[in-house]
Amino acid sequence: MKIFSAEQIYKADKATLEKQDISSEELMERAATQMFNWMHVRMQGAPVKIHLFCGIGNNGGDGIALARHLFEHGYDIAVYVVKYSDKRSNDFLVNLERLKDRKIWPVFLDDKSDLPNISQDDIIVDAVFGIGLNRTPDDWVTKLISHLNDSKAFILAVDIPSGLFTNCVPENLDSVIKANYVLSFQVPKLVFFLPQTGVFVEQWEVLDIGLDSEFLMKEETEYDLIAKSEVLQFYRPRTKYSHKGTYGHALIVGGSYGKIGAVTLSSKAALKSGSGLVTTYIPECGYQILQTSVPEIMVLTNGKTSLETIDFDIKPTVVGIGMGMGIGERTAKALTEFLKVNKLPLVLDADALNILSKNKESLKYLPEESILTPHPKELERLIGKWKDDFDKLKKVKAFSKKYKTIIIIKGAHTITFYQGKGYINTTGNPGMATAGSGDTLTGVITGLIAQGYTNMQAAIFGVYLHGKSGDLALEKTGYQSLVASDIINGLGQAFIDLFKVPEQVSEQQEEDKKENVK
Ligand SMILES: NC(=O)C1=CN([C@@H]2O[C@H](COP(=O)(O)OP(=O)(O)OC[C@H]3O[C@@H](n4cnc5c(N)ncnc54)[C@H](O)[C@@H]3O)[C@@H](O)[C@H]2O)[C@H](O)CC1
Ligand SMILES: [K+]
């Protein structure tokens, strides 16, 4: 799914009005009707107090129109207009009049108003600011927003939590609504997926308001959201007359005394993600450990307790390098010498990245489309400190362009970056923040490249599979007990899940749908 910028959404609106020959107020009505249906299906007329806080722009207009629908279906509503400016939008005014026609008089709030009473059992609809926010809200609006957050009532945000910008991190985080649920029109917003701003979005859902499909299809975006339908197109089925040679040979390089586990996990993950052969290149101290724990894997050794040279006479398809490798002088030199002569596709992780951070001139030896999988600290060593999430994205983009590398920013929503574009992953969970999880990811990506996936496909698909496997494992382990080996063991189910058809809608839902059409 594409993630559009605010400018692109306004362009999509314009294209829709022209193509479908409708007014902007009709489009607002679609948005409000969709939100009402969403609420009505869940609330079924429940006598819960709903407080609607509406700004004076189109986000506020959406809220006012929603209030009308709720009123007409007998819901107990209280409507507030947050008068943060005199520049009321036309569609807001049209809907305000419609509300007044029904004898509903909103409470107008300004800097002198008392804060309204809200019980924690009530529902708040947040329609104060939408994607049009362009400066920090005034102090009194921030106070109101903090008051709503403190109420502990369930907050349903319209389009985006009020106070969140679409293209930067707010200076004052007290001015942002902490939404329990966001109903976002047509497309999710980038800020839902970044650590500093994503915390304001507990859950989100997209409501289709019928924006022009041609525009949505043709318009190029800087970010894509990656879910099952996006990765399925990469999937390479196995063929009947294939043999292990068909699926490539992954070489995993790394390990040092006390850190043989890291390479073991990567190697096993490469194997379990389908690499035909896997060889692990480690210091001698790991020989027995590896041969015993993963008998399917071949082992080459060099150095006693850490690697001294990286030099082999096998012909692997791809090399995954750095896990548990250490950053000692000899190992660092071994890596640099290897990079100078290497022509194979590379996946670089952990200490390989730490060594490169200290010897940035060696980055020029990386083949194009090498994959770098840093965790936050490793990323900081590579690109330097960042001011906020947006600054981080800018720096990663510049780095990836300069060295022509694919960078995977690991996190709650891992983002794969290449050629100026970010691919945001949707699988994974906090249970995966555990030792060896990253080593496993490197193994999965290396294993996919071995089988013939392009580096970009392997990066995006690998991140998805790794997360999905963690999600499936979670059902048995819970968050705390999920360990990297569970992720490896869940990989098979993650592949199988790709082809699971979503559950059928129930008969009752089908009936409801028919009713709606009537
Ligand atoms: N295609 C869609 O997704 C549709 C979205 N709709 C809704 O429209 C809003 C965007 O509406 P817009 O009027 O452009 O912006 P806001 O409602 O966010 O209003 C802000 C308004 O106020 C000014 N402003 C900005 N920041 C401040 C500030 N800190 N203090 C005071 N005033 C401020 C700014 O100039 C704006 O004019 C979108 O989110 C959806 O909810 C449509 O209803 C349907 C199509
Ligand atoms: K909002």
Short description:
This is Bifunctional NAD(P)H-hydrate repair enzyme. The protein has 518 residues and is α/β, with parallel strands linked by helices.
List keywords for this structure.
alpha/beta; nucleotide-binding; 2 domains; binds ligand LP7C6HRI; UDP-N-acetylmuramoyl-L-alanine:D-glutamate ligase
Structure description:
The protein has 518 residues and is α/β, with parallel strands linked by helices. It folds into two domains: 2-221, YjeF N-terminal domain (Rossmann fold, 3-Layer(aba) Sandwich); 231-497, UDP-N-acetylmuramoyl-L-alanine:D-glutamate ligase. It has 18 helices and 18 strands. An eleven-stranded mixed beta sheet has the order 1-9-18-17-16-15-14-13-10-11-12, with helices on both faces. Helix 2 (24-43) crosses helix 3 (58-72) and helix 3 (58-72) packs parallel to helix 4 (90-101). It is elongated and about 85 Å long. The chain starts with a strand and ends with a helix. Residues 59, 126-130, 157-160, 162 line the site of potassium ion.
